[in-house]
Design brief:
Radius of gyration: 13 Å
Shape: elongated
Structural class: mainly alpha
Largest sheet: none
Strand content: under 5%
Length: 56
Amino acid sequence: LVKEFIAKVPKLEFSLAKVMFLLLVNKQLPYNTITSIDTWVERIKEERKKFTRTNS
């Protein structure tokens, strides 16, 4: 499970707090974490785009 998780989370892209939150939310269903990681990664990237400044 750990190897699958590591393979799906982009290295150095997310804070430890975000990753820990994901793990804590799914601690009772670890396989759910693996199956939903792609959706989580995309959601976080979309959130970042909303807060990125486009004009200085």
